[in-house]
Design a protein that fits this description.
- The complex is a heterodimer of chains A (601) and B (305).
- Chain A has 18 helices and 21 strands.
- In chain A, 28% of the residues lie in helices and 19% in strands.
- Chain A has 601 residues and is an alpha+beta fold.
- In chain A, helix 11 packs antiparallel against helix 13.
- Chain B is mainly α and 305 residues long.
- In chain B, 74% of the residues lie in helices and 0% in strands.
- The chains are: A alpha+beta (601), B mainly alpha (305).
- At the A-B interface, helix 1, helix 9, helix 15 and strand 18 of A face helix 2, helix 4, helix 6, helix 11 and helix 12 of B.
């Protein structure tokens, strides 16, 4: 309970300073072209292949430059190390022409070989990269990373494929069982496979780093072969894990290569200091090919994770901008009125997992009734208040209109009552559910609001709220020990598949027990469909299947909301909350003469 | 005395072993694992990670490996910070926590000892009683209340010092003030009661009868024995301060041991948890021995054996 006290004191602080004022706190730009970012947590690693999440990504994308770079507003890929690119009609082969001027910070040119080395390293099992799965679109990447084997017909030389044309992957153990004919009834996919292996002359083929579909045709030409048509591949090439790392430095220093004294990078900035718990300091890289367009001399990322502390620092003028998601919920109402409050759509979906293995949640009517009884509008307006959008779908609302999002589930208490009565629980009589969530002010508020919603519609329902510490909660969800569990998911890249993939029957992110072959087929087909429109239509059909079954109950799609001092330019809200600081300037640099910097309030 | 020190330290080894063994199995027994995130990673990648850190081995093998490393003072890699070793994090953390702790305790002594002396000598003075009252308020206000209040006053209203952060002298002001507030009252009370006890003793009366002045009595005869309780209190207090104070370091965003300890526990960073636990235990044991020695030096009646 001790966290309550800082919250209360924080509210007092805000109250004490709550005179109507345009901006929140001090507005004095730092001396020189420096940007001070409140980044939310310590980066675990500055190695693009070992870094697990968005905290690291926010720093990495400024140190290392990929083939493409995010546009700071639309996030569309813009030329970076790659000057131009072309793809074949089926979107299975991409060819990138690299910039001759691109240099590492110790002077060596960036070549196509750097990318070959880097992607192979990211996929190598020894690297144990947590995000390696984002490279699985590349030919043989998954097989190499997971150590699985493919099946080849000795006569035709062809590999056995699945329904959408991906090479089938088996564990070595599965292949061995197949060879021995030791197939029990509990592995239907092996039985089915066996029936497809008409000739007996097939062999299990393992895959090495050299088989991964990335090749350097010469110093500046990189060719990438994909597993199946992947229309959205260029959305991936800006991701941190696709960015190059310097081979000679890694081979020389091993795990210590990311230390400031060793690290070599190719982006607009280089690492000057990394003190865990204190700060990460980047300074402008003079050898960067586009250095003339980089305004900032220094960028400092602060890892503080306490929302109240961050707010204090921002107010006192020690921070210039906060990344999204760090504002304390109790302060939102006040901050929303300030001119330094920025918000915009964000690809983060908040939803409930439903354990469809547990009666009565095995009954689709019960799931639908629960979903229909939630007044999302009221939750977003009254409880959350940061501008979150009520959502009836798993995919969040904003894909720039490219995705024909299905209508989704709404608020209809009448129908909810009817459905639940039909399922044998009139007014919720006899229905007991355990709702699992993790510690956190926001999650508690939401859990209580949902509990109240259900009670309002079904007076006799019993919903027990179970709050667990973060790691315990993750563990409980994985074990499937819940009736309902809260979950939020943000996109790796701006595409519906980043959400829909998680509900595939094989996904490690699907602990609901829900498996739907039709859904799997539609998502897989969509992700192998070169035509963008047809692909989106297939994904929408898949989501429709999902929403009919409701193994997840959508709640809302989130917003990016943060504070930004008025003298900071080029740091805008975008749907992934990625902010390449290459494009950011602070007012005193004279980058935009029209800017008026208000003096202290 | 040398034999006493060696004996004490040798006796501490089994204790240390017991603490570490208990911690080793407790952290593994707690639900959750390192590398877990909201977005789960494929099972094969998780297996790579486990293999990379030896977490795929049975517990007793992990335990044997860990203890072998520990014998060479190798605390292993951190799971939360794959590019750093636990030893590096410990060293960085101590370099931050120790100055704050020592400074805060020095401030507590600087205010508390004179206040305690004044209270022992002039218990009826209004000033002394007011200051003593203030010190009691200081010890009764939890630091997570006092800290934000100081921030409100000095950082967000007066804009004198930054509300949080680390690295410059100005960052020290608020955490040291907050932290020392809790100790001033303890120090003052211990000094006061110790001094009152000594002043009532026969040898002090004898000295007074001989015509020794009050200052000389205080400095030459009374103060040294009066400080024994304070010294015993100093050992564990300093050990806890050196090991980092979780709440202060969270409020003021200080990258000390306390901060890393919380992060390690939340992230199930087994090796880092164990590293910090061993550091804290060793600090506690060593400081207690040092305090025993100091007491023997201050009070010749105490003989160490």
């Amino acid at each position: 309970m001790w966290w309550l006290v800082p919250t209360v004191v924080g509210m007092l602080l805000l109250g004490a300073c709550g005179r109507p004022a345009a901006y929140f706190g001090k507005i004095v730009p730092p001396e020189g072209a420096i940007l001070r970012v409140g980044n939310g947590a310590d980066p675990a690693s500055l190695d693009p292949h070992r870094a697990p999440g968005s905290v690291e990504e926010q720093i990495l994308i400024n140190l290392f430059e990929g083939l493409t770079e995010y546009d700071p507003v639309t996030l569309e890929p813009t030329p970076a190390v790659a000057e131009t690119w072309e793809m074949n009609e089926r979107a299975t082969l991409f060819r990138f022409s690299l910039r001759r001027a691109a240099r590492w910070s110790h002077g060596r040119p960036v070549t196509a070989w750097d990318f070959v080395y880097s992607w192979r390293r990211a996929l190598a099992p020894e690297t144990a990269s947590p995000n390696a799965y984002l490279l699985y679109y590349i030919k043989n990447a998954e097989a190499y990373n997971t150590g699985r084997v493919k099946l080849r017909d000795r006569h035709t030389g062809r590999f056995l494929t699945d329904s959408v044309g991906r090479d089938l992957l088996l564990t070595t153990e599965e292949a061995e069982r197949l060879r021995r004919g030791d197939i029990s009834a509990d592995v239907p996919h092996l039985r089915e496979l066996r029936s497809r292996l008409t000739s007996l002359s097939w062999e299990a083929v393992s895959v090495t780093a050299e088989d991964v579909g990335v090749r350097a045709l010469d110093e500046t030409t990189l060719e990438v072969e994909l597993e199946v048509p992947t229309a959205f591949f260029l959305k991936l090439t800006s991701l941190g894990i696709y960015r190059p790392v310097p081979r000679e430095v890694i081979e020389r220093y091993g795990r210590a290569w990311t230390r400031p004294e060793h690290i070599v990078s190719n982006g607009p900035f280089r690492l000057a200091e990394f003190t865990p718990g204190r700060r990460v300091v980047l300074e402008k890289n003079p050898l960067y090919w586009d250095a003339a367009r980089v305004h900032l001399q220094r960028v400092i990322f602060y890892p503080y994770d306490d929302a109240t502390t961050l707010l204090h620092l921002y107010k006192a003028g020690e921070l210039d901008v906060l990344v999204s998601g760090l504002l304390p919920p109790y302060a939102l109402r006040l901050l929303r009125e300030k001119r330094d409050y920025v918000s915009g759509p964000y690809l983060l979906s908040y939803f409930l997992l439903v354990n469809v293995r547990r009666p009565p949640l095995t009954d689709r009517r019960v799931r639908r009734a629960l979903a229909l009884a939630i007044d999302r509008e009221r939750l977003c307006r009254r409880v959350l208040a940061a501008g979150q959008q009520p959502s009836g779908t798993l995919t969040p609302s904003d894909f720039h209109g490219a995705y024909p999002r299905p209508k989704g589930v709404g608020y209809d208490p009448e129908q909810a009552r009817r459905l639940l009565a039909a399922a044998g629980y009139p007014e919720g009589r006899g229905l007991r559910l355990r709702f699992l969530y993790n510690t956190g002010a926001l999650h508690t508020q939401i859990a209580e609001a949902l509990q109240a919603d259900w009670r309002r519609v079904f007076p006799l329902i019993q919903v027990e709220l179970i709050r667990q510490e973060w790691q315990v909660y993750l563990d409980t969800v994985r074990r499937g020990d819940f009736d309902l569990a809260r979950r939020s998911f943000s996109a790796d890249f701006s595409d519906p598949t980043s959400f829909l993939d998680s509900m595939l029957s094989t996904s490690p992110n699907n602990p609901t027990g829900w498996k739907n072959p039709e859904y799997d087929r539609l998502v897989r087909r969509a992700n192998a469909e070169p035509d963008v429109q047809r692909r989106m239509a297939l994904l929408a059909r898949a989501e429709q299947v999902l929403l009919e079954d409701l193994p997840v109950i959508p709640i809302y799609s989130s917003v990016a909301s943060f504070l930004r001092k008025p003298y900071v330019q080029g740091w805008s809200a975008n749907v992934l909350d990625r902010h390449p600081v290459k494009f950011v300037a602070v007012g005193t640099t004279g980058a935009s003469p029209g800017l008026q910097i208000p003096r202290r309030e | 005395m040398g034999r006493y020190v060696i004996k004490r330290l040798l006796l501490a080894l089994p204790l240390l072993w017991f603490i570490l063994t208990l911690t080793f199995f407790l952290v593994r027994w707690a639900p959750g694992k390192p590398f877990r995130r909201e977005r789960a990673i494929p099972a094969e990648i998780e297996a790579h990670l486990d293999r990379h850190y030896g977490l795929d081995q049975p517990w007793h093998v992990q335990y044997a490996n860990y203890m072998r490393g520990l014998a060479r003072l190798d605390f292993g890699p951190s799971y939360r910070y794959p590019d750093l070793t636990v030893r590096e994090i410990l060293l960085r953390g101590v370099r931050v926590s120790a100055p704050i702790g020592v400074l805060a305790y020095a401030v507590a002594l600087g205010f508390g000892v004179p206040l305690g002396i004044a209270a022992a000598l002039r218990a009826e003075s209004l000033w002394v009683r007011a200051l003593m009252g203030l010190a009691i308020v200081g010890v009764s206000t939890p630091n997570f209340v006092l800290g934000p209040l100081l921030v409100l006053l000095f950082s967000l209203t007066l804009y004198w010092v930054p509300p949080a952060g680390w690295g410059e002298g100005r960052h020290l002001v608020l955490p040291v003030l907050t932290l020392s507030a809790a100790y001033i009252a303890y120090v003052a009370r211990l000094t006061q009661s110790g001094l009152q006890r000594v002043l009532a003793q026969d040898y002090v009366r004898t000295a007074r009868a001989k015509g020794v002045g009050p200052c000389a009595i205080l400095l030459r005869h009374a103060l040294r024995p009066a400080l024994t309780p304070l010294l015993s209190f100093t050992g564990p207090s300093l050990a806890f301060l050196l090991a980092g104070t979780v709440v202060i370091e969270e409020i003021f965003a200080i990258p000390g041991l306390g901060h890393f300890f919380v992060q390690a526990a939340l992230n199930r960073d087994y090796t880092l948890i164990l590293g910090i636990v061993s550091f804290t235990s060793v600090a506690l044991i060593v400081l207690n021995v040092l305090v025993d020695i100091a007491i023997a030096v201050v009070d010749p009646r105490v003989v160490l054996e």
